[in-house]
Write a structure and sequence with these properties.
This protein is mainly beta. It has a single domain, classed as Pectate Lyase C-like (3 Solenoid), CATH 2.160.20.80. It is built from 1 helix and 14 strands, in the order ββββββββββββββα. The strands form 2 sheets. Strands 1, 2, 3, 5, 6, 8, 9, 10, 11, 12, 13 and 14 form a 12-stranded parallel β-sheet that branches. Strands 4-7 form a two-stranded parallel sheet.
Length: 235
């Protein structure tokens, strides 16, 4: 059988030279725009603003934790070693965005829309993506323990070598989604992954998938020794 061609994800389009900038929380407000900038070690934690646009930028070691950025628009942007913990980005969008080696613990992105986005070597424990939509998105070498994807559209999304322990997948759409060598202990709502492909090298991970499916269907997996054969009648 021929191998399936990998989904191509467009990379961020950045200028060769970006202007260095260090905006502060006090300088940014609703509808602020950051364009073609390089931000390094910038602290924007706890920023609250709506309809902010970040385009053509590279953010390195920046703090965006605790931000409340409703309808944030990220385009052609790289976030490297950034802290997005407990940020709340409702109804936001990202197009041609790359997130690497970053902390997204507790990130809330209800209604988030991601297009041509990669997230690699990052921590997303307890992140929430309810009703989010993913188009040409890949998570690689990420930890997503207890993440919430309820009612998200994961069609075509790729999860590669990710820790999906205790992740909630209830009511997702997953046609064409691919999961490669992921961890599944305690994953919930796995019955909603109809149309997805799961490829695991480890037999342990296959067993975790079987256990999760059995739990979803109300089936108890047991050891035969727990159910000894009844002795036959005696003459």
């Amino acid at each position: 059988m021929a191998s399936r061609k990998a989904t191509r994800i467009a990379a961020p389009r950045l200028r060769d030279r970006l202007e260095e900038a260090s905006p502060t929380v006090d300088e940014l407000e609703d509808e602020s725009r950051l364009t073609d900038l390089a931000l390094t070690d910038v602290d924007l934690s706890e920023l609250t603003a709506g309809h902010v646009e970040i385009s053509g930028c590279r953010l390195t070691n920046c703090k965006l934790n605790g931000t409340d950025l409703a309808k944030l628009n990220l385009v052609d942007t790289v976030l490297d070693h950034c802290d997005l913990a407990n940020a709340h980005w409702a109804d936001s969008s990202a197009t041609r965005v790359a997130v690497t080696s970053s902390r997204l613990t507790g990130l809330a992105g209800p209604g988030l829309s991601l297009h041509h986005t990669t997230v690699s070597d990052s921590v997303l424990d307890f992140a929430s993506f309810r009703f989010a939509r993913f188009v040409r998105v890949a998570f690689t070498d990420c930890r997503l323990q207890n993440a919430d994807f309820v009612s998200a559209d994961l069609s075509g999304t790729v999860f590669r070598r990710c820790d999906l322990s205790a992740v909630e997948f209830s009511q997702v759409r997953a046609t064409g989604a691919v999961f490669v060598d992921c961890r599944w202990e305690g994953a919930r709502g796995i019955g909603s992954l109809g149309g997805a492909t799961i490829a695991n090298t480890s037999p342990t991970d296959h067993l975790a998938i079987a256990a999760a499916m059995a739990w979803t269907l109300g089936i108890t997996l047991a050891d035969p020794l727990d159910h000894p054969e009844e002795p036959g009648p005696t003459g």
